Amino acid sequence: MSSQPRTQEPPAGKENPSAQARALPPLGFVSWLIAIYWALYFVVGLLDKPYFYGFVYGMASALVFALCFLGWWWSRKGLSLGEKTLGFLLIFGGAVAAGKFAHSTMNILVLCSIGIPLVATCAMAWIFLVKQAILPSSRVGLAAVAILAWAPFLVLRNDGFDARLRSHVHWRWAPTSEELFLAQKPAVAGAAGVAKPAAAVAAADPHEWTAFRGPDRDGVLHGTHITTDWKNSPPPQVWKHAVGPAWSSLIVVGDYLYTQEQRGPKEAVVCYDSATGRELWSHEDTTRFDEAVSGPGPRATPTFAAGHILALGGTGILNCLDAQTGKLQWTRDVKNDAQSKTPMWGFSSSPLVVDQNVIVYGGGEIGKSLLAYRLDSGAPVWTAALGEQSYSSPQLTTIAGTSQILMFDDVGVSAVDPASGKILWQSGKPMKGSPRPGQPHLVGDAELAVAVLDGPGVSLVKISKEGGQWNVAPVWASKDLKPEFPDFVVRDGKAYGFDVSIFSCLDLATGKRAWKEGRFGRGQVILLADQGLLLVLSEGGEAILLAADPQGEKELGRFPALNGKTWNHPVIANGRLYLRNAEEMACYAVEPAGQAAAH
């Protein structure tokens, strides 16, 4: 009588490793899911795409990945309920736990778009190696792999993203540039700083830089000539030092520089000596704006008017300060007055002073989008019901012989009477919640070139007035120049600016691109009108001098001016180039020697 060989059973309480490996789920679908996700992650990251599209894609792709992975994991028949629950907790519960114990900058954006796909990939790699009998199968092993994959998010800090949404990470215990600045910042004697003669800041020269993007907010500088042989003789550095983080730009009045900074829990309006970079005074409020994409600090640029400095902070505090001493004249909470919320990227509207009114954008949903206050007292004057959100600033212009304030927000471009706040006309496609930045640009006497007015690109509209009735007629809309947060400048019927991240020239007569050549990242540009020069500040901190030539890009030289991500607008005044970013500020001499001596 023959007998069948007996299969040896594993000891009680132990599983057969080969049987357990066979029970693990097949990885065909999820392997393709992981491969496609990471391939697109790196390929899309290299594409020259609009910032907003990249942001939405990052979040949407991570959500699709998470849902597909979750559905695949819970549908596996070879796994017990306990194993499915363990995997879910390790990957998705791990994201919650990491968010609780990680540095505050490792927020939901980072954990969802990078963390969950990374941990899921590591876990599936472990399962693959188990199925190949390279590693022993165990729940402990899977848990260890997931924990190790989450570990970097506990020991790293995210110091914001660049324009391509690439994160800048450091050890969480390493000091930030802001902490280093505060530790090394010299003390300023006296709360009011160092006084200078009042006449030095009672009024401004017409050619000085007294407001965001210049006196007319168009990035155009008149009455100034600079050296142009930057290839052989780049501008010499006059001074450079660390500053507190902010995306505010600078204004220049006589011997004074003004800007805003974040200094720990304090938001500061700061005055510097333009010749030395030495701090003269600062006014501080206990408030802090911070967000994961750009980092901490105020966004708006101060404005000078009649011996006053007007500054709007990232959380909506509007201060009127004495330009000489920094003494507080009055303050308002714009967020409270407009009954709005702090925007995703902070209050970014630089104040505008018209006659005796200070105009700022507050947004909100109750019809108090644009607000005017008395310059001498801060008393409310009027409000105008426009959109709910904007990263643009009000600007004054004259069209059809009528002085008007232009405001660009999520309802489009609106023109408002400076004295009463009455809306004169509106144009553009409403885009609720759209982060519309940039300024409208007057072309000729009655046309406006506006970015993102009817969608991505630039639109040209013609404004006219007949019998007291305002008319706005579209001329063309073009996608040949797609500015985002960087603005553009206009000279001789041509617009020069960034088409996403590549510097370009657009013919404003036709809306057709003249050229697209300069790769500087998403930087900023100003125009020296008298010489036909473009000063471009790259996202990496390089200063580049170009000829404003519609025939093609003609570079006259460049030099490394700042270290670190640079989104702040450059300034030229009194023969000096002033630059700053979230880490440092610098001054370079750019005026010809003969003219410098004349000053």
Radius of gyration from the CA trace? 28 Å
Q: Major beta sheet, specifics?
A: 5 strands, mixed
Q: Remind me, CATH topology of the largest domain?
A: Methylamine Dehydrogenase, Chain H
- In CATH, the architecture of the largest domain is 7 Propeller
Beta-strand percentage range: 25-35%
The residue fraction in helices comes out at: 10-25%
CATH class of the largest domain: Mainly Beta
- CATH homologous superfamily descriptor of the largest domain: YVTN repeat-like/Quinoprotein amine dehydrogenase
Task: Please name the defining characteristics of this protein.
single chain, about 600 residues, Methylamine Dehydrogenase, Chain H, four-stranded antiparallel β-sheet, 9 helices
Description:
This protein has 599 residues and is α+β, with helices and mostly antiparallel strands. It folds into two domains: 17-171, no CATH class; 177-592, 7 Propeller (Methylamine Dehydrogenase, Chain H). It has nine helices and 35 strands. Strands 3-29-30-31-32 form a five-stranded mixed β-sheet, with no helix packed on it. A four-stranded antiparallel β-sheet has the order 4-35-34-33, with no helix packed on it. A four-stranded antiparallel β-sheet has the order 5-6-7-8, covered by helices on one side. α2 (28-46) crosses α5 (108-131), α3 (51-74) crosses α5 and α4 packs antiparallel against α5 (108-131). The longest helix has 24 residues, at 51-74. The mean pLDDT is 89.
